Amino acid sequence: MKSPDELTDMQRYVTMHNGTEKPFENEYWNHKEPGIYVDVISGKPLFSSTDKFDSGTGWPSFTQPIEAHGVENHSDTTLGMTRTEVRSSDSDAHLGHVFDDGPAEKGGKRYCINSAALEFVPKDEMAEKGYGEYLTLFEK
Predict the structure, then answer these.
(1) CA distance 113 to 19
(2) Which listed residue (7, 46, 66, 112) is catalytic?
(3) Residue 85 in contact with residue 18, Cβ under 8 Å?
(4) What is the CATH classification number for the domain harbouring 109?
(5) 49 lies in which domain range?
(6) Position 138 in a domain
(7) Would residue 97 count as lying in a domain?
(8) Is residue 133 part of a domain?
(9) How many domains is the chain built from?
(10) Is residue 118 included in any domain, yes or no?
(11) Is 128 exposed, middle or buried, given 0-12, 13-18 or 19+ CB atoms closer than 10 A?
(12) pLDDT less than 70: residues of the chain
């Protein structure tokens, strides 16, 4: 578990103050390497590159979380609209929002997630970093 002092200013802004980073100017929006994306605070596995897709929005987008109980959805009525906020169930960090405009053949969801809320673990390093049980995600 990382303390607030261990996070960058952008990571604190996004995760603890419900912020949003700029589209197309964040670390993982166009990232294509195989691996998993974990909660930047707790290290809990949240999303897999196997579920990542290019939504054209400029933020990392996923069709689903690795485990449904890894994230929590909350109603968000800021900005004069109703959206569904996504938070990490482990750290309560703000991650982003989920929308119903994802690929229909993958369930229709688009988890639009801020890069600053995530840390990427490459597939080749997952076992040594304690995420070996998630390597089955890449056996399809």
Answers:
(1) 11
(2) 112
(3) yes
(4) 2.170.150.20
(5) 4-123
(6) no
(7) yes
(8) no
(9) 1
(10) yes
(11) exposed
(12) none
